[in-house]
Write a structure and sequence with these properties.
Layout: H1 2-14, E1 19-20, H2 22-30, E2 39-44, H3 49-61, E3 69-75, E4 78-84, H4 89-95, E5 100-105, E6 108-112
Parallel strand pairs: 2-6
Antiparallel strand pairs: 1-3, 2-4, 3-4, 5-6
Length: 115
């Protein structure tokens, strides 16, 4: 039963239906233990792997300090990036210059990827 379930997930990942970056797996080890310093960035209009990498790297560069925690998940043209530590969400959003910020709500930032 477990083998069949694993095979279906592998097939879905290979088909591009769902993917998780290596950073997600690694970040899961340390976790995002403090919700007061974790920000979620939801991105639409992502055009492919190079765009995902560019966005993830740029957002990680904006995190307040080290050690940084970054987890990225994506499906089709959408991606979600969780980052920590970020103490001031609005200041973090104001530093995003590579894409268009469409909304800041609580500890969630929504943006549209630049082409």
């Amino acid at each position: 039963m477990g083998q069949m379930r694993s095979s279906r997930w592998i097939a879905r990942i290979a088909a591009g239906a769902f993917a998780v970056s290596a950073a997600t797996v690694l970040a899961g080890c340390g976790g995002f233990s403090d919700p007061e310093t974790t920000v979620t960035v939801e991105v639409t209009g992502v055009s492919g792997a190079l765009s995902r990498d560019r966005i993830s790297e740029r957002l990680a560069d904006l995190v307040d300090a080290s050690p940084k925690r970054v987890a990225t998940t994506y499906t089709n043209t959408r991606m979600t990036v969780r980052l920590s530590p970020v103490t001031d969400v609005q200041a973090f959003a104001d530093k995003i210059d590579c894409d268009t910020v469409t909304e800041v709500a609580g500890r969630t930032i929504r943006l549209t990827a630049s082409p």
